[in-house]
Request: fold
Amino acid sequence: MTSVTYFVAQPFEFTSAGRLVAGAPQQVQTASEAVRRAEYMARKGGAIAFSRTGDLSSGDFDDAVILKSFGQVPEEV
Reply:
């Protein structure tokens, strides 16, 4: 088993109709970098920093772990 953890910052932005939608996620190297990047991304609405750990060989990954949330994000996140 080859376990790996990915750290991601995911922005959420408002459309012209006022709807909150996901922007392009950015993978980073560390949890603290994901939190810093998400905080910066939140200036346009909101963002989350999260991690996912799993097995590269099988493709099985655990559910995402939210590290920190900023601004407005969808409730289902």
Observations:
- The radius of gyration is 13 Å.
- The chain has one helix and six strands.
